[in-house]
Amino acid sequence: MSYSKRTDQVSGHLNYPKGMLAGQVAIITGSGQGIGAETARLFANEGAKVVVSDVDGKKADEVASNINSSGGSAISVAGDMLDANYIDTLVKKAAEFGNGKIHIIVNNAGFTWDGVIHKMTDKQWDTIIALHGTAPFKLARAAAPYFRVKDGEPRNIINISSTSGVNGNAGQVNYALAKAGVTGLTKAIAKEWGPQFGVRANTIAFGHILTRLTGAKEAGAFVTTPDGTKVALGIPQAQKDARGDGGVHPDIPLRRAGTATEAASAILAVASPLFSYVDGQTIMVTGGRNM
């Protein structure tokens, strides 16, 4: 594997002829669609060997197939992040794919299961806390032997959060707590694995990004929990219309929602050598909202 870089003597800029992530093995959870799928594509374009992880096996296979047909390198390892056995399998197959090495984890998998505090069920609470809080911890713990190494190669863990975790959000007390906890998890990893092993860990907190979680609930997007419960995703169209903003988003300085590609580009930036001295931070990607 080559992690070499060269300096353009004319411009002084660093160039990465084989890509900024050349030779690095990256696990991206929830990468069968949306932000995760775009992240997988961008990582592969920068030379990473991508492990596509998603509960939807068909979608995961499609993402991996598209990457491979475009000249990149990817495998699909489908499964449920709430299944501890799956997490062990994911790490094992990623390490095999990487000839014994894993360099990047992007903890992106998740969904929302909203409800006001006085009506939220234990099942809603426990599922979201487990998916957004416990699962990223278990994945990092399972992958520890591949991160607590001294081989001179970069290691990155990027945990995806939300403005709900930074500022709170009505109707999302479970999600808000879980995403706030992601910040603490990230900082603990940075402080434990940074000094001896050079592992960088950062959080990215997204604002309004155009995904199935922010689309109209009437579009019919849903996820199915392990016990077969269907959880509807999105925001009711009536609630969206009640804002009366015509989709301009006056609370966002850029006056628009972000795209999945823009969100994925932020993840790539944090994983790249361009952010080599950024560690333990929560990076807000919101179009300026809540600043």
Biggest pleated sheet:
7 strands, parallel
- CATH class division: Alpha Beta
Q: Mean pLDDT, nearest integer? A: 90
Major β-sheet strand ordering: 5-4-3-6-7-8-11
The count of DSSP E runs of length 2 or more, i.e. the number of strands, is 11
Say what the CATH topology is. Answer: Rossmann fold
Count of separate structural domains = 1
What's the total helix number?
8
The percentage helix is: 25-40%
Percentage of residues in strands: 15-25%
Q: Whole-number radius of gyration? A: 19 Å
The ordered H/E elements are EEEHEHEHEHEHHEEEHHE
Shape: globular
- At the fourth CATH level, what is the homologous superfamily? NAD(P)-binding Rossmann-like Domain
Question: How would you describe this protein?
Answer:
It catalyses: a (3R)-hydroxyacyl-[ACP] + NADP(+) = a 3-oxoacyl-[ACP] + NADPH + H(+). One of its GO terms (molecular function) is 3-oxoacyl-[acyl-carrier-protein] reductase (NADPH) activity. Belongs to the short-chain dehydrogenases/reductases (SDR) family. This is 3-oxoacyl-[acyl-carrier-protein] reductase. With 291 residues, this protein is of the alpha/beta class. It has a single domain (6-212, 258-285), classed as 3-Layer(aba) Sandwich (Rossmann fold). Helix content is 39%, strand content 16%. It has helices at 34-45, 57-69, 84-97, 122-147, 163-167, 173-197, 237-242, 260-271; strands spanning 6-7, 14-15, 25-29, 49-53, 73-76, 104-107, 155-162, 199-206, 222-224, 230-232, 282-285. A 7-stranded parallel sheet has the order 5-4-3-6-7-8-11, with helices on both faces. A two-stranded antiparallel ribbon has the order 1-2. A hairpin with a 6-residue loop joins strand 1 (6-7) and strand 2 (14-15). Helix 1 (34-45) runs parallel beside helix 2, helix 1 (34-45) packs across helix 8 and helix 4 (122-147) packs parallel to helix 6. Mean pLDDT is 90; it is low at 1-12.
